[in-house]
Structure formats: C-alpha cells, structure tokens
C-alpha cells in the first residue's frame, strides 16, 4: 500500500467516559459513542491513572459503511453546514480538501480514512494506548452488549448501507480491515494487555505488522 494509515491521526480526540460506579469506557465513533453519553460523564483527568478501560467494537465493514453514510449526510447538508465541515478537515487534520457531494464518495474510495467517522477502530485504539500507562488493561465487548449498561440506543444502525456496492470490492479497504478483524477475532469478550494486541499482530499477521506498524514503532517503544 502506498501510505501509512497511522501518520495522520495525532489529533484524533480520545474521549474517555466514566459511569457512577467508576467504570471507564472508551468512546469510538460509530460504536455507540452517542449512546454512551446518556449513562456516563466525560472523564477529564490523567488517563495514566486508569487501570482498565472497556471498549465497544462492532463488525468492521458495516461500521465503515455507516461512517461513509454519515459523511455523505454531512456533505449533502443533512447534518451540518458543508463549509464548516471543510474547515474541520483543514483545521484538525491539516488538509485542504476541495470536495463536493458529487466527488466525496470517489475520494473516499481512493483514500478511505479521511475523517474520524471512517477511521478504523484500531486507529482509535492505537491513539488511545499512546496515552495510557503500559499496564492498563483493555476489555473489549461487542457493541450489542451496550444495552447492559444503558437503555438508550441513539443512532442505532439498520444495516442498510447506501454505498455497499461502491466499497465491497475495495482491495485496499479489505487489506486495512485486518486490524479491526484482529480485534473482533482475538479480543472481543476478553480483557487483554496492550502488549497482547501487538503480540497477536506479530503472531498472526506478521507481514502486515511489519509493513504497516514498523514505520511507526517508535510511537509505542515503551511497550
């Protein structure tokens, strides 16, 4: 692949939520992030003080398509002003994307991870662990389990995605989805160490790990 997907995520917001019982949750977009706000509050202290964080994840491809639908809604004016969103991309990600609603999907088809709605779940997790102490534990749960902590279900997805035909054969997307596939296969319903994530990648996806994570290995040299 012709670019490294971890080079441009340094400004990704990593919001930690905490409930009344001092359970901590990592809020990932398109993984019930708005629902979490109904039963938790924003945690504003040092992330290195946290011993265990619960992370809700979901089937990767459907989540990506949901993110594409959201971005398309933004661009067609159904969510917010187009100019505001372009400014958001330019300011937060230091990009100047002169897009309109007609070529947004074409641009996404080529570049995929242009904004947090379409970032991989592993993008979010990678950014999170850079801010944690090395022995923080991560508890992964399927998004369907979120109903155990709240009765609210904001923005529930219906599995009817507008652009499935456009992305279903995208080889680059399938390649990078290996990160999220790894999370779903080896981490859901488990509490794991940060090191475990990288051990799994090295053991089961070594060529992928070597090609994609090695260039940014200095980011997690403390592990």
Explain the overall architecture.
The chain is α/β, with parallel strands linked by helices. The chain has a domain of 141 residues. A hairpin with a 5-residue loop joins strand 1 and strand 2. The longest helix has 16 residues. It is globular, with a radius of gyration of 17 Å.
| Main sheet record | 6 strands, mixed
The backbone outline, from C-alpha atoms, is globular
Helix content: 25-40%
Low-confidence stretches: 92-96
Tally of DSSP helical segments: 9
Oligomer: single chain
Strand content: 5-15%
Mean pLDDT: 81
Rg over CA atoms: 17 Å
In sequence order, what are the helices and strands, one letter per element? Answer: EEHEEHHHHEHHEHH
Extended strand count: 6
Strands side by side in the biggest sheet: 3-1-2-4-5-6
Distance between the termini: 26 Å
> Structural class, judged by helices and strands?
alpha/beta
Question: Which key features would you list for this structure?
Answer:
39% helix, 223 residues, 6-stranded mixed sheet, alpha/beta
Q: What's the SSE blueprint?
A:
Layout lengths: L14 E4 L5 E4 L5 H4 L4 E2 L9 E6 L2 H16 L6 H12 L10 H8 L9 H9 L7 E6 L21 H4 L3 H16 L3 E4 H11 L1 H7 L11
Parallel strand pairs: 2-4, 4-5
Antiparallel strand pairs: 1-2, 1-3, 5-6
Helix pairs in contact: 8-9
Nutshell version of this structure?
The protein has helices spanning 33-36, 60-75, 82-93, 104-111, 121-129, 164-167, 171-186, 194-204, 206-212, and strands spanning 15-18, 24-27, 41-42, 52-57, 137-142, 190-193.
């Amino acid at each position: 692949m012709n670019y490294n997907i971890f080079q441009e995520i340094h400004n990704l917001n990593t919001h930690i939520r905490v409930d009344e019982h001092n359970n901590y949750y990592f809020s990932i977009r398109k993984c019930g992030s708005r629902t979490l706000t109904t039963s938790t509050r924003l945690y504003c202290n040092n992330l290195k003080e946290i011993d265990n964080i619960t992370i809700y994840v979901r089937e990767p491809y459907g989540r990506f398509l949901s993110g594409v639908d959201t971005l398309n809604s933004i661009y067609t004016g159904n969510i917010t002003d187009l100019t505001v969103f372009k400014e958001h991309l330019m300011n937060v990600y230091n990009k100047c994307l002169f897009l309109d609603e007609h070529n947004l999907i074409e641009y996404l088809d080529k570049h995929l991870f242009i904004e947090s709605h379409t970032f991989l779940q592993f993008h979010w997790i990678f950014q999170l662990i850079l801010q944690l102490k090395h022995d923080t534990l991560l508890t992964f749960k399927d998004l369907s389990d979120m109903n155990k902590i709240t009765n609210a279900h904001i923005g529930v997805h219906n599995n009817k995605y507008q652009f499935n035909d456009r992305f279903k054969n995208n080889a680059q997307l399938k390649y990078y989805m290996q990160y999220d596939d790894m999370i779903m296969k080896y981490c859901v319903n488990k509490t794991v160490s940060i090191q475990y994530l990288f051990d799994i990648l090295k053991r089961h996806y070594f060529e992928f790990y070597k090609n994609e994570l090695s260039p940014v290995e200095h980011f997690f040299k403390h592990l």
